[in-house]
Protein 1
Amino acid sequence: MKAPDFRYLKPKTLPECLSLLAEHGDLAQVLAGGQSLMPLLNLRLAAPAVLIDINGLSELSGIREADGSITIGALERHEEIAQSAIVRQRLPLLADAAPHIAHIAIRARGTIGGSVALADPAAEWPACCLALGAEIELASTRGRRRVAAADYFQGLYTTARQADELVAAIHFPPAAPNAVHAFREISRRRGDFAIAGLALAALRTGETLHNVRLAFFGVSDRPILASNAMAALEGRPLGASMIEAACKALGAELSPPEDPAYPAAYKRQVATTLLARILGDLQAELLDA
Amino acid sequence: MSTDLKEPIGAEVPRDRAKRLLAGRGRFVDDISLPRMVHMAFLRSPYPHARIRGIDTSAAADMPGVVRVVTAADLADVVSTWRPLHNRFPTMAAPEQGVLATDTARFQGEAVAAVLAATRAQAEDACEAIVIDWQALAQVGDVATALTPGAPRIHEEMSSNLAFEAEVVAGDAEAALANADHVVERTFRFHRHTGVSLETRGILAEYDPTERRLTVYQSHQTPHQQQDLYARLLGLPEHKVRVICPDVGGAFGVKHHLYPDELAACAAAVLLGRPVKFIADRVESFMTDVHCRDHEVHARMGFAADGQIVGLAIEDRFNAGAYGQHPRSSVAEGNQITRLTGAPYRLENYAAKLKMAFLNRGILGHIRAVGHPIAAAVSEALIELGAKELGRDALDLRRQNYLRDSDFPLTSAGGVAFERLSFTQCLDKALSLADVGAFRQEQAALRAKGIHRGIGFNTFVELTAIGPEYYGEGGQHISAQETCLLRMEASGQVRIHIGTTDQGQGIDTGIQQVVAGVLGIPLDDIEVISGDSALSPMGGGSWGSRGAALGGEVAMRAARTLRLNLLSMAGFLLQKSADDLDLVDGIVVDRQHGTAHMSTADLAKIGHFRPYTLPSDLPSDLTVTARYASRDRMFIAGNGIQVAIVEVDTGTGLVRPLRHLVVHDCGRVLNPLLVREQIRGGVVQGLGSALYEEFRYAENGALLNASFADYLVPMAAEMPDIEVAHVTTPTETSELGAKGAGEAGLAGAVGAILNAVNDAISPTGAFLTEVPLTPPRILEAINRVAQIE
């Protein structure tokens, strides 16, 4: 199939881009890496009147640390994030997650802003944002605002972004010295969207975990925090009975949508397996260190 | 065995096209453009079953770039409808089909109208502007429902949805099962998938009304079959219809059928007098390429206390989709299953029933290894179950029951003539390469750590090089004979014109090798010209593993004739007996001493430009032909065994293939490199079939996964190394002794993986019989047993 006809616009500056977004709103689609948008266009599942190509906007690039947070520009490619020294040192969860995103060709083009804007429920970056308590920065001609990840992801491909807003950057709190993290997903083939995945972030004191955040993806209409399982782990030394309790809590609180390929019961079981394994590994790591 | 079959026959020669394709110089249908060409796009039924109450094309006709919008009525005067009859199966229903649906659409994706426009994008835009007054009808998506009395009928001309039923009987299976000491019984389910070629189907048809000449460029396996069909269905003189298959990016049986949309492109070219191009996109491919499998097989195998198989009964229920496949019909997959199940074993009492229904689904056709993977998987899963029941080692049980050397030749219980097969030899070879004892030790040690590995064996028979009786008697114009024309140019270099086609498997190279070896001239001095119905002598193309067995044999025969002519010319010129001369590397040499006398170029110049120097009765033709069809048997049967080792994650249901071994007997191997790659490619498709590939449909019959995002194919990262070894039992039906090799990989892989997975999870008590072995199915099977316990 071929994409339906559209107007192609490539703004040279961010203000120009935001004006175009203000002008065209819902009728426009923003083209960043194009790794989801181009197939949607070619399958005629998306038919925007206007395509706004933001690839020329250098303001949206770069990874910086300032004012106690790390800012990743919306146009940073997945592979650039994976290779970034700042990310490896200060946001190791992202560095661990990046290799799970599709294949190298896709990682070389796809962007974090595009992933966060699309909000695919099985995507890696939204779950990392949720696990780390990131803020999504939205820009429009009306100004800029920051939305916490927990408020930003609202449903299936649905976010807090207004039609005239552009995802400009993501702000992450850097990992504390006593931070622990883990990332794992289950997919049929290397590079596939996850059947279920988990991004874990926590602080540790000895073998005890605090501020535990378990962000699951692929098991709901958006990335979700497993709050009961988190509560089961909070403030206690990680051990076999705690892991069992967390898995039990998770099984009770997850209600994945029925999917013809992966029934809800299967997804729940696999998510539980994932949690048990990630916690088992973490326990060994805590004992080791 | 003939002594003139010299190197490079049997040498590892890379295929001749590889360099050009790697350099990006391939020429596929979509690379060809012609002046005044228009693009064709189809409006396809979004419903699996619906009445078409009206079609309004007026808005579409006014869209930018649109040349013409056509419906069935517009093409009715240009192209006929057809019925895929098969005279060997006279009771098979063959409802009428046309290029576009008229009043009813019977599967999702069936073409209803088409737009011809300056660009494909404009044609698609205009398709969206066609207004159809649909009335959705009750859809039927499974055989059980289709065959229930009172079920909605797919074809009003038929009294029910039953397309065909048949029975194969030897001895008395029911009595044998009733008296058996042990009977194992299961129902197996093999879901629907397709062939997935990298290059999608595509066609470019050019019509010149002044000469009534139709030239078709098409990604296809059978140019002569298409020439005949286009001539007859479009009412054109056959000698003015030419079908050219340029580079073809994979076919796997998907591309040896007649497709309504492709014929519609030809009809539109005739209607407009302009070249028309249609290239299927991936969604269209998934929806409208022929599908395969979709069988449910209920099977019972009975054993005597000593382990002897005493009886086997199977019932296969499957479907043709919405119409029969033209021109081959859709019955072959079920037919092969009823002929091949239990085939490796001594079997006196056998009964196989098949029922084929019509459904509101895409059409099922012949895709690589038609029926084989199912027959082998069912047989070999039953052997495993029997061994458990008997407390026997499954390999010993196989060995006890295998057909033995002294049994051949025989006609199997399924009715297939087996010349000589090598089951025991293949098993012995497999066991010399895979140390089962060491694996079992490792398996036990890993199980203690919660790691579940399994090993699976799968014996298979491979039916290749179909004989002329099947389609000849069936009434189809499908050649099972091959003709080869060799023409030596004045330089002494040779062009081979042959009816077999090369769609990436490399048969052109194998044929080149045969001619080089028999003729005694260098490989580089030979080129194969294939895939052109005007340039290649009438032949069958490449499908059903016929290229090496039939094309190789006929090339050998033609090369022998040319060689005799060259040597008789040389004998006259040198005043020696032709018997004392030989051709080596393009030089006529003394057979005994090797003294060089003259080159083929010297001979060719004399033959072409100074023929008056030779006696007129001397055999000196430099253009020769030969023809060959296998006689007195429907197939040339080969065989083999596959061994798979897998790891099953019992927490997720994911299966990781770790090792895969194929021991294969295809008789004489023309080119071990190409045969290995054929086998590996087939194994990968088999792993796809066993683990990933499956069409899924919603309750309302809508296809849910017509894209590579959701229809999973095997990818390199998940594939194990695939080892290939050979046992060589040449067929004596031909002098070359080659059997086909295209089915083996797929034929054996599915059952090997099924048995390996079942072995891996055997401690859980679960035993799967549904393919593909998806993670949810594996966990569900384990959970079900756990709940019972």
Protein 2
Amino acid sequence: MEPIIEVKNLVKVFHSRGRKITAVNDVSFDVFKGEIFGMIGPNGAGKSTTFSMLTTLIKPTSGIIKVSGFDVDKQDDKIRPLIGIVPQKLSLYPLLTARENLELMGNLYNVPKNVMEEKIDYYLELVGLEASADRYTGGFSGGMKQRLSVIAAVLHDPQILFWDEPSTGLDPQTRSVIWKLARKFNDEGKTLVFTTHYMEEADNLCDRVAVMDSGKMVALDNPESLKESTGSANLEEVFVHFTGEEVRD
Amino acid sequence: MTIRTELRDSLIVAKKEFKILSRKKALVIPLFLFPIIMIVFFGYGMGGTVKNAPILIVNDDTGRASSFLVQEIGNYSGKYDGNPMFSVTYTKDMSQSEAESKIDAGIYKGVLLIPHDYSDSIAKNESTSLTLLTDSSDTTTSGIIVNFMKQLLAKTGSVILNVPNIYGNLEYLDFLTPGIIALTVFMGSVATTGSAIAGEKEDGTLVRMLMTPVSKRSVILGKTIYQLILQLARAVVLIFAAYLLVGFHMNGSWLIIALVLVIFTLGGVGMGIVMSSRVEDMESFFQLNMLVTMPSMFVTGVFFPLSSVPNWMRYIAYCLPLTYAIDAMRAIMIKGQGLNAISTDLIILSLFAIVTFTLGVHLFRREA
């Protein structure tokens, strides 16, 4: 299996009000080309920080991340065109219409105009938003925003799609649409990396699941092996096995 | 990342800003109307007072009457806390044009020229005339000086006071308008830049945009292009409104005004970026904005001449960039002066722009 993301000895330290917080503590792993890779872990485990470093938003304190062979520290501008990001905070301009939001994203990714219009129409129909294309997104429901954000992330046909908590706060119908989309993108050859709090989602979608806790990666394998090795019936039990019962801050 | 892509990206950002602005009707209208309302209300409603206004007396006469007059002006102390209204300097043998240039340079607010035959004429009870030059670009001070002289001479009798208007017939409105334009551009560029960024931080759109290949330079440049167009448009609308509504006299060059406003807007945008980098949401930004821009509004001499404020206030004013923008705008718009007269202002404003912009680019982070 060919790695598309290589992470070696990754560390991220934040300094806040004189306190030193090690959010990610010596983490190493690879993500293989074409797989769906999930990250789970309790709040404060370091998932989001890792996610932000993988997507070039913040720089590692130490360690190496290579995405498609490029170093996030020095070649982040080479990486950004190759990846698509669906952030947890669905960030759309409320005073722009759905189509205008998509056009803005397409333009910033330098997608040729004719290709872009075609794709926008195709994807809007695919996610069932064609009737709302010319409405301001300020009035959209959470599910509509999630669907629109996904389109915004794939207009430039990225190799890797990063997806932060795809189905948090969504109804089961939207969640099933989101899962179908994820599989469709994966079938098209895209590598998917996402974080989630839903064990069912990780179990259903992921080829491999990484369990993070207190800044460390405590387990990484496919869902079946994780269940077998810990003698668990489902991922929920795997999760508790590795991270304990204690409630986190 | 080539310059072409960066420019292309910044135009995409600028276009987006205009599109969003055009949909914020509740913002567009006040943005243009607020300064016009200020001119109308303050222009008709306010006056001012004078303290320690520098006055030059050119006395070419050696007789008794003139020394009596000079003494009386020198001894006059105003009603405000015992502070004298004027600080008087004496000289002789100065031509009117030389005196005018002293006023132009801002050294004196008024120059009284006493002819060599003044005392003789008074002694013979003949009619004689004095010439009083005032800096009429400072309408409050010059009005008070003229009134004071008229009252004083009324006691002496047959003296005619000539008051040539160096800058044409000016009113308080003419004094006010350049200041309001500078204030409008300052508050506008700081507030709209800063609040837009703070808002985009709050709803996550800024981070989302910075996840794309667009560079932060392009984002800042795009926002700057948008601000330059917006603020210049506001200034032009304001000047025309002042002309139509209150008969404002525009004496100077549009090009130099544009230059001052472009430099000043850059500084304002930089300051907005710096301020927004210190806050996480819009509400905090507006509180911070209040703290930073309010003193500028009242201390820098938008509504009254700096010569009439206490020293401590004047020293604060000299630390605020708005003071220099107002000074430059008045020099151009009222006095019709050129680049030479405002070179100090321009240097200080450029420094302001360079410092805030450098700091802004540095503090504006890609990180969430």
Protein 3
Amino acid sequence: MSLVQSVDNVALLPAYLAAGTAVLVLLADLLVARAAATVAVAAAGSVATALGSAVVGAGGERATFCVGPDCSYVFGGRAALVGALFALLTLGVLALSGPSLRAGRSPVGEYCFLLACAMTGGVVLGAAGDLITLIVALETLTLPLYVLVGLRRGSVASAEAAVTFFVVSVVATTLTLLGAALLYAVTGGLHLDRVGALFAERPELLDVPLTTAAVALVLLGLAFKVAAVPFHAWAPATYDGAPLPVAAYLSTASKLGGVVALLAVVQHALPARVTGPVLAGLAVLTMTVGNLVALRQHRTVRLLAWSSVAQAGYVLAPLGALALAAGRSDDARAAAYAAAVAYVVFFVIVELAAFAALVALRPAGADGGTVDDLRGAARRRPWVGAAFALALIGLAGLPPGLAGLFAKVTVVRALLDGGAGWLALVVAVNAVIGLAYYLRLATRLYAAPAPALPADAAPTPPLSADAAPAPTLPTGAAPAPTPTPALPADAAPAPARPTEAVPAPVHPGVAVVATLAVATLVAVVVGFAPQLVLDLAAR
Amino acid sequence: MTGLLGALLPTAPLVAGLVGLLLPPGAGGRDDRARRAAVGLGVAGAAGALLVALVLLARVGPPAETSTTWLDLGGLRVTLGVRLDGAAALVAVAVAAVALAVQVYSVGYLRPDPHAAAEIDHRYPPYAAQISLFTAAMLLVVVAGDLVMLLVGWEVMGVCSYLLIAHDRRLPGAPAAAMKAFLVTRVGDVGFLLGIALLGVSAGSFRIADVLAHDHSAGTLTAACLLLLAGVAGKSAQFPLHTWLPDAMAGPTPVSALIHAATMVAAGVYAVTRLYPLFERAPVALAVLGAMGAVTLLLGALAATAQDDLKRVLAWSTVSQIGYMTGALAVGAPAAALFHLLAHAAFKALLFLAAGAVIHALGTASMSRMGGLRAAMPVTFWCTVIGLGALAGLPPLSGFWSKEGVLAAAEAAALHGDGPAPAWVGWLVWLAGLVGVAVTAWYATRLLLRTFLGEARTREVGPQAAPAHPHAAPAHPHATAAHPHATAAHPHDPPPVMRWPLLLLAVPAALLGLAAFLPPFTGRLAAPEGELTHLGPAALLPLALLAAGAGLAWAGWRRDRAGDPARALGPLGPVFAAGFRLDAVQRALVVRPVTALARLARAGDERVVDGTVEGTGRGAAGLGGALAGLHRAALPRAAVAVLAGALLIGLAAVLIGGAA
């Protein structure tokens, strides 16, 4: 075997572009030292990455870093979809960050650099062909996020969120690595296709308990990234503590990364007989717990966080159909994978729209606030409010939000095709529970603005304190400053609240509104032409 | 190209309507900018549709079909497409023209009165937008190449009619009338939906071309056609689902013109002509249609004789005229039905707008308080004369030719058995049609005499002036007691913005009948040579009946100029005025049992279902709260959860999965 590999640089082009963006951002920050230039470089880089992914992906599948028939980097249709989505999500989050960056809460250069790094991880992740590339790419995606979450200067909640995220993530990665190592011990292969082929050739391997343990560990570690129950507890605290745009990134791009990684191992490497039941269990737990807890949330971002936990359950649900023999036929498997991809694409679009609307409705650099802070928001800003309501209804899966409706229909159909009617039933019941809180939030947008009664304002701080993360860091032990010490307006004592109840008109940046408009438009378009996404997902 | 034009046809008013809905609803007539924008949008949408329809009419050739697949979810395939032929283009022109006239007319009719309370003209933008949407929905029905699309237009029309009839919130009858219209048409729509589903499943496609080409089994076809007829009866106000139409007069008069002339009530007849090849193969359905049409025709005409409310006379006459159309369909003459539809669209729109002008000037719709308006309102008078002449079938006005076409077809079916349905259907339609001619002439003459001739009764207030029936319609908003000076004192012709639509509509109302001699016109209606132009001795019979009817009314009026010729009806008068008390029958047979059932269902719902649901809700919320409580201390519990979860699930997988 030759030790000199021929490297297909075209296949690597999107990864180069993404990594180049990161380096250029760093240089721009160093040499030009102007926030606008840095952001512009990052934005241009993400556009280039998206275009590069699309162009390379249009040209058929390309593989490189091959040892014999096994390749570590395979850039095909799905990799192109994933790469382009990551780049566009990065662009969107960058646009959402405008107000908070202008408010000077985070250093611009570092912020953009870290986002670009995460994007690099995401682009490579879609193309990963072996377990090591996969895990490294996933870590490249996640690592910058620890810092991004904690980047808000002087915010205890932010730091707390970052530490939570970091510790739990490290534990989960350990599990995945342990699983991968055990898998290697059993099969002697690391390439996804090789492992899959080995399991197919030697079914007796499956009878070794170690195999089952290895497979389960790999899956569970990856399930952390999509915030599946019971690996979800980090998500609400982290989302709520992070700056809003970063929370948007966590709930879209990071979640997309987790799904892609899970799909890669489930589809190519791991035996469906073992993964199916595990995923089905995870899906049921995730949907149910996520939706139930979301019912009782008072803080907007926490509500969205829990809802995105529940949404992860819907993504995993079609894969759960593999638990049954009927679900393991080639047709049913293909349908299940396509349904998971389609769902996550629909979800990511709608979720980005929801976060964009939230950013637009909140003061620059503020956190998500409580649900009551949004009371009457749609009356003050009808367009943004309507977009938010549409996104929420889309997340709930009701008709005007056709994108969400078709996403759910796709999942349910895949489940029924796979003979997993019971799981479809669980999905349906959960969709009903989900309605309760999505509609609560949506109606709150249109509710009459609360009368500026001091008596009414008084109970508000205890409410938010109730839902806020209980102090876990010693410094946060005093209850009063806990919610968001970084925000003087929020942390102000009760008498100051009535002034905040009728906020001055907020003017979000043009970029935020543009992102919201584009995301909403895309959601509406794919809602009316779901076939586009379904075809893309089936590739 | 024609496909694109066909798609553009409903799109123009649709866009205007959707944009119009975004305008602020306008508070108290002060929001002048929103009103102007709404007027511009509404008129532009209707004018655009008219333009497209005219181009389409000029270009249309043999039936053309364009369609694309919209969504393919497993076995469910929905297409987007248009199907265009001459008839569609003609109906589209009629719809767009009436819509344009209504939009322009409404500008004057719903004008804010500087002296009046600011409340008068609230919500003009949504009103104009809803008319645009209504037009778009009707045009969608006209061009739809797929039954599902047709259904979409059909349903949107139902919603818009609900909103428009209820437009004037201050009228006590309006919300109830809107609800009645919605519910009654809905009953029919259920049948329509089932019929479409049956046809689609049987043909394996919802495309009209596929449905028509498919060889359905006889039973399926009859069942589907009968189900479709239920929907047609609802929308086109045919017996026994006609009860909503007279009450729908609670809506503003221009809306009545739109609903009655070219859109909603025409949709049913049009849908039948669209699917006529299917009905031809289902004689049972045609026989039902013929019986329904004949009953409706007579019922509507007789009910119109005793009404005191100007608009209700016209409403019942619509019911009756639609009966002529369905009768023509039943005797196998869809071209004659469409011809009458077009002529009716012209003269009924004219009549309603003229009635609107009278109501606008007098502030009342009650004929007991009119009379002698000819001198004061000459333009309105002559327009009404043309409209009523066409309605009664006076040669050479449009209604004469179109009604003659229907009667000739019925006669041929009765005497020679020419129609697809049995000969008795032909007899039924023919005789009903002939009687109808006389009755129509009678009530048309009565309307003209009571309103425009004789002594002015405008100031008369007394028991006689009280409305003859409980649903007495609504005086126009201007008639509110707040500004009596606007009413009655000096009736005058309407302002130009209302006068011009009248004058322009008078042209087709008068002359459209002559189009039957133009080959391009008959060709577009797909009428056989000479079918629409009968000038034989047979035409003398209806003319004689017409003269008899009009003469009787005249004679009655001559004897007592202040009195109502309807008194000649004697004890039958109140029965006719109440529409044969079918509302009471409906109340006893349908409404009461349903209400009782609803009360029962409600009790069950509150005690059993609600209890369960609330219990579930409380349970879910409680569970959610408990689970949320577990997540308070984020970091330590999260880490523990990950490790414990991994351990437990891993163990479970090894122990259970390994054994499996």
